[in-house]
């Protein structure tokens, strides 16, 4: 049992945090990061911003999470997931990702939010993003999972000072009580930016760029892992991370992202 002194210390600490937060709110009133309107807490979205975000909800492909534009059974899968053997760009593979979920579509509105975290140091957005990730990955968290972020190369991490995927992974783990392994994967090879590359070029770009850190290599076998990242475009990075984990003996590797690019030519089967 904790001592009375320890409890008093916790209360005092919380009081100081609340005091600083209150002072910050007076000096810098909370504003919506999208519209600039006043909101109750830092990082919160205004009603107008919520209307602009295209959230992903059912119905969607039960494996890759691709949203359908029509009423569909929860058991439906998209055409890509139904033809894994003949569709090389599929997200899902027995040797890689098992399931994928996303909170929202990647468009102008969501891009403004995500880029604010990534390049404008808007860490106040992380708590709200974590809540969105919990909602998106609810079915992936039914079993015990180890949550781990997609890593940055050490050079890029030094430039940016933080890994946005790690912030999101920590928030998700804190909100769900799941185990978090921040340094499970290492991006040991620096790769050019993926922007502007085709799907095949992206896959080549990240091939063999990741590895499991030595201290974890004997504890992967039979594990259930949930990868976390900010944006999914073609999925090349997530697929490569999953491939490395599966090769090391992982039983299941799923992924959840804040936003994903959604093409309009969706076929349900």
Question: How would you concisely characterize the structure shown here?
Answer:
The chain is an alpha/beta fold and 269 residues long. The chain has helices at 4-27, 47-52, 79-82, 108-120, 126-136, 154-160, 164-176, 199-206, 236-247, and strands at residues 99-105, 146-149, 179-180, 185-187, 210-212, 224-232, 252-260. Strand 6 (224-232), helix 9 and strand 7 form a beta-alpha-beta unit.
Taking all Cα atoms into account, the compactness measure Rg is 20 Å
Question: Which series of helices and strands comes N to C?
Answer: HHHEHHEHHEEHEEHE
CATH architecture: 3-Layer(aba) Sandwich
Indicate the proportion of strand residues. 5-15%
Number of domains: 1
Distance, first to last CA: 56 Å
Quaternary status: single chain
Which strands sit side by side, in order, in the main sheet?
Answer: 1-7-6-2-3
Which structural class do you get from the secondary structure elements?
Answer: alpha/beta
Helical proportion, percent range:
25-40%
User: Which word captures the global form?
Assistant: globular
- Helix tally equals 9
Mean pLDDT: 82
Low-confidence stretches: 1-24
Largest sheet: 5 strands, parallel
Reading off the top of the CATH hierarchy, the class is best stated as: Alpha Beta
Task: Tally the beta strands.
Answer: 7
């Amino acid at each position: 049992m904790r001592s009375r002194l320890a409890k008093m210390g916790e209360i005092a600490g919380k009081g100081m945090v609340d005091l600083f937060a209150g002072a910050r709110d007076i000096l810098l009133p909370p504003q919506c990061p999208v519209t600039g309107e006043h909101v109750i807490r830092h990082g919160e979205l205004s009603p107008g911003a919520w209307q602009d975000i295209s959230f992903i909800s059912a119905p969607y492909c039960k494996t890759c999470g691709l949203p359908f534009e029509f009423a569909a059974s929860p058991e439906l899968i998209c055409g890509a997931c139904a033809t894994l053997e003949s569709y090389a760009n599929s997200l899902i593979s027995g040797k890689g990702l098992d399931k994928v979920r996303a909170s929202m579509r990647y468009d102008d509105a969501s891009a403004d939010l995500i880029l604010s975290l990534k390049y404008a140091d808007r860490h106040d957005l992380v708590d709200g993003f974590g809540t969105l990730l919990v909602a998106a990955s609810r079915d992936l968290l039914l079993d015990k999972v180890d949550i781990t972020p997609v890593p940055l190369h050490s050079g890029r991490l030094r430039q940016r000072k933080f890994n946005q995927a790690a912030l999101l992974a920590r928030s998700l783990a804190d909100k769900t009580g799941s185990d978090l392994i921040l340094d499970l994967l290492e991006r040991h090879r620096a790769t050019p930016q993926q922007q502007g590359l085709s799907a095949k070029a992206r896959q080549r770009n990240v091939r063999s760029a990741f590895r499991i850190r030595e201290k974890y290599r004997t504890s992967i076998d039979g594990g259930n892992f949930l990868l976390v990242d900010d944006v999914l475009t073609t999925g090349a990075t997530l697929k490569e991370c999953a491939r490395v984990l599966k090769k090391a003996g992982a039983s299941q590797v799923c992924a959840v992202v804040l936003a994903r690019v959604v093409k309009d030519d969706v076929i349900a089967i």
